[in-house]
Design brief:
The complex is a heterodimer. Chain A is of the alpha/beta class. Chain A has one domain: 3-Layer(aba) Sandwich (Pyruvate-ferredoxin Oxidoreductase, domain 3). Chain A has 7 helices and 6 strands; from the N terminus they run βαβββαβαβαααα. A 6-stranded mixed sheet of chain A has the order 2-3-1-4-5-6, covered by helices on one side. In chain A, helix 5 packs antiparallel against helix 6 and helix 6 packs antiparallel against helix 7. Chain B has 3 domains: about 240 residues, Thiamin diphosphate (ThDP)-binding fold, Pyr/PP domains (Rossmann fold); about 130 residues, Rossmann fold (3-Layer(aba) Sandwich); about 30 residues. The chains are: A alpha/beta, B alpha/beta. At the A-B interface, helix 1 and strand 2 of A face strand 1, strand 8 and helix 10 of B. Strand 2 of chain A pairs antiparallel with strand 8 of chain B, so a sheet runs across the interface.
């Protein structure tokens, strides 16, 4: 089982991101379970959502306590909550930021993550360029496909098109594809 | 058809396949997505021959369903928590009048303190109102139980509540198999009412009944539920033949055959318990599970047959009767009444107001039932620190303030201290 926890803020499409990820995994024949951490939804408040992916039926209903991957949609959350809580030793980290891990003051934490498993991508900028709104979720999923290989970009693209047919979907597909290319290129260089 | 979709949406799609003729509902979290989905399907013509009636309250929602059902329509509504309480009088009327309404309950805690999260308090508050109550373990079962619920309700002319854990199931996106219209039509024939308000053949429904016949009306209500004890397994078997899945029935077991300890539970927590049992079996523990599907009628005889002769029974439930204990545990105790060599029954209260139930906590409590059994209810993961402080404060200060606010303040302080 592969478990992903996505951190963000209300309005950033955190819950939608886990749902899209689960659809992408479903497209590849996997079992997947996406669910939000339930609270009173408020724009800007810290939000957490979860996605499990497995080759067999998923029965577990507890929150994801030991994620294999973390996607952080808003880097200011590192100051507010313990984002890294429970991250597995071989885990992945993807952060939406234009800063370095040093500038985010999390370099010490990153040192504990295997080489090539922690990445930054400026998903907000890519979202503004392709979608015209600072909604980084689709772009981050594209980058996550490149970083982790848990799902393929084409499955992410298919999930986005199913959820958002038409212009909005295509704009998100463009953002996801651009982020995938950034992350894939950086991965080769690293 | 297999699809990756939200539980609520899949439930709405399945209800549409059951061809309801009147849907009336008032939105309340976490049931909202179900009735929104149905509203959309009626508006866009996907669900035909169905009237979606907007009402001003839950009391009106069930009252409209009662009227529609009495006039011969297949009627559906959904609610949760405070919404169920607000329709309480109509809940009793629907069952007392013998109207086969199906209602989804997106299980949620009851306030005060206000809480939108999942537990089974709402279902328990109405478990003795004469409705049959079926609890879904998964979203797939939630869908499947609705198909069986309409069949059961209409066969007996009695209403059925399908209980689906709020958020945990209603808001989870999963792989679900939505059946075909042809299969649902074959399993669920058109509604043929046993009583109907028809201007061509006028009757009245809802007579005042005095002491001379009231007991007999109640007896016949109970008798119908005892018939459901036979019908539910039959429908589940027929359902499996047609749809190829185990859904419904009275109860199910998991690795129970040789188990010294049996866990008894209802709803979505069963999945986490199964994973925990697999881990404990690997450690050499003799443990299994009984999943209760039908809470009303309660499968007393079937449960007694399973539990008798075991060493330990751990009843874990998301409900609690203040001043008494766990309602499910009490019912399990009743099932064992007068049983020779009755097993030890251990009651665990868990997941109240949406507190997550983790494998780690289940491991601890199942092991503890064997090594350090307790009397009365055990509250899983109880924060004894803030309780101790609050009790101390209440003893010392007369105007000690509101409990909920005091506890939140203490919790905030302890988190800052730990942080």
């Amino acid at each position: 089982m592969f478990q992903v926890r996505i951190h963000g803020r209300g309005g950033q499409g955190v819950v939608t991101a886990t749902e899209l990820l689960s659809v992408a995994a479903f497209e590849e024949g996997s079992f997947a379970q996406a669910f939000p951490s339930f609270g009173s939804e408020r724009t800007g408040a810290p939000v957490v959502a979860f996605c499990r992916i497995d080759t067999k039926e998923i029965r577990l209903r507890e929150p994801i306590l030991e994620p294999d991957a973390l996607i952080v949609q808003d880097p200011t959350l590192f100051k507010v909550i313990d984002v890294f809580q429970g991250l597995r030793p071989q885990g992945y980290l993807l952060v939406n930021t234009n800063k370095s891990f040093e500038d985010l003051h999390i370099a010490a934490k990153i040192a504990g993550i295997p080489a090539g498993h922690a990445r930054t991508v400026n998903a907000t900028e890519l979202a503004l360029k392709h979608i015209g709104r600072p909604v980084p979720n689709a772009a981050l999923l594209g980058a996550f496909a490149a970083l982790s290989g848990v799902v393929q970009l084409k499955s992410v693209v298919s999930a986005i098109r199913q959820a958002f047919p038409g212009k909005v979907g295509e704009a998100n597909v463009a953002a996801a594809t651009a982020a995938y290319e950034v992350a894939a290129t950086e991965r080769v260089e690293a | 058809m297999l699809k990756q979709t939200e539980g609520s949406h899949a439930i709405a799609e399945t209800i549409a396949l059951c061809r309801p003729e009147v849907i009336c509902a008032y939105p309340i979290t976490p049931q909202t997505h179900i009735v929104e989905g149905l509203g959309e399907m009626v508006r866009d013509g996907h669900l035909k021959n169905c009237e979606f009636i907007n009402v001003e309250s839950e009391f009106a929602a069930l009252s409209v369903a009662i009227g529609a059902s009495a006039a011969g329509a297949r009627a559906y509504t959904a609610t949760a928590s405070q919404g169920l309480l607000f329709m309480a009088e109509a809940v009793y009327n629907a069952s007392g009048l013998g109207l086969p309404i199906v209602m989804t309950l997106g299980n949620r805690a009851i306030g005060a303190p206000i809480n939108i999260w999942n537990d089974h308090s709402d279902a328990m508050s109405m478990c003795d109102a004469g409705w049959m109550q079926l609890f879904a373990e998964t979203n797939q079962e939630a869908c499947d139980l609705h198909i069986q619920a309409f069949r059961l309700a209409e066969e007996l002319s009695m209403p059925v509540m399908v209980c689906v854990d709020g958020f945990v199931l209603t808001h989870a996106v999963e792989r679900l198999d939505i059946p075909s219209q042809a299969d649902v039509d074959a399993f669920l024939p058109p509604y043929e009412p046993v009583q109907v308000l028809d201007s061509a053949e006028p009757i009245s429904i809802g007579a005042m009944v005095g002491p001379d016949a009231f007991t007999e009306v109640r007896f016949l209500q109970h008798y119908k539920q005892t018939l459901a004890l036979r019908l539910l397994p039959e429908f589940a078997a027929e359902f499996k033949t047609r749809f190829g899945r185990d859904s419904g029935g009275l109860l199910r077991t998991y690795r129970a055959e040789d188990a010294d300890m049996l866990v008894v539970a209802m709803g979505s927590i069963n999945g986490t318990i199964k994973d925990t049992i697999d881990e404990m079996r690997a450690d050499g523990y003799s443990i299994g599970l009984v999943t209760i599907v039908a809470f009303r009628p309660f499968p007393t005889a079937a449960l007694r047959n399973l539990l008798a002769g075991r060493k330990n029974i751990v009843v874990i439930e998301k409900s609690f009767a203040v001043g008494m204990g766990g309602q499910l545990a009490n019912n399990v105790d009743l099932a064992l009444r007068n049983t020779p060599a009755s097993p030890q029954v251990h009651s665990v209260i868990a997941g109240l107001g949406g507190r997550p139930i983790t494998r780690a906590s289940l491991h601890r409590v199942f092991r503890r039932a064997e090594t350090q059994p307790w009397e009365g209810p055990h509250f899983l993961d109880l924060n004894e620190d803030i309780i101790g402080k609050e009790l101390h404060h209440v003893r010392k200060v007369r105007r000690s303030g509101p409990t909920a606010e005091n506890l939140l303040r203490r919790l905030g302080a302890s988190q800052v201290a730990a942080g």
